[in-house]
Design goal:
Length: 234
């Protein structure tokens, strides 16, 4: 329990009234299945935290950006996607405190990223219950909403595959194609490497646990290359 109090005070800047809320937020379902003394996992807190995160993000975007609903929805999705909140979780450094079964501890990198993201939402739920809405809002602002400038600068709120196709057709007059360059790993944890080609030029490569995921990452790399080569600001 002391290590959770220390994390809360040093990393979150909070003294929990009920530290068990934070412990529950960092408890995966698999741990409860394996340790019967642990009565509750984090899924209910995750449900609550997800709602608070969506409200705070929506309110922030509404107040600061005069954009159509479609763009606002895409911006919010970029802020709260698994990769964004999983990265925020790694930056906070709570991964060693997450309680998992032995089997889940041996899981894939992608599985761990999802677990970290789920825990982040659960932590929001725990903060909301223990400290109230305003403190939960400050936590989200500090760890998630600060990423909005980078998202806008990189254009990562756009659908990558649609955007890179738009750039390729506008600049080169060619529709990009994706080619699988490598497949590796066992069937249950396979990794794909995909390249995006515009004509004969390789514009970027991406890796993922599905071809679709790898294509999306390749598209993001292609966008970065176009933006750099042609000085595209947004």
């Amino acid at each position: 329990m002391e290590e959770y109090k220390k994390f809360a005070e040093e990393k979150l800047g909070l003294k929990f009234h009920d530290i068990n809320l934070l412990i529950t937020a960092l408890t995966h379902r698999s741990y409860v299945n394996e340790h019967k003394a642990a009565h509750e996992h984090n899924e209910r807190l995750e449900f609550l935290g997800d709602a608070v995160l969506e409200l705070v993000s929506s309110d922030f975007l509404y107040r600061n950006y005069d954009e159509p609903e479609g763009i606002m929805t895409a911006l919010r999705a970029a802020l709260v996607r698994t990769e964004s909140i999983g990265e925020a979780g790694r930056e906070l450094g709570y991964e060693p405190l997450v309680r998992l079964s032995k089997g889940e501890q041996q899981g894939s990198e992608r599985a761990h990223d999802v677990i970290l993201a789920d825990c982040f939402e659960a932590i929001i739920g725990a903060i909301y219950l223990d400290q109230g809405y305003d403190i939960a809002k400050k936590f989200i602002e500090k760890n998630i909403l600060v990423k909005i400038d980078t998202i806008l600068e990189e254009g990562s709120w756009r659908d990558p595959k649609s955007y890179v196709q738009e750039l390729a057709q506008k600049i080169d007059g060619v529709t990009p194609v994706y080619r699988t360059l490598k497949e590796e790993g066992p069937d249950h944890d396979k990794k794909f490497t995909v390249g995006i080609y515009v004509g004969t030029s390789l514009k970027g490569t991406g890796m993922g646990h599905s071809k679709q995921e790898a294509q999306t990452e390749a598209a993001r790399e292609g966008i970065k290359k176009y933006r750099k080569e042609h000085k595209i600001k947004k």
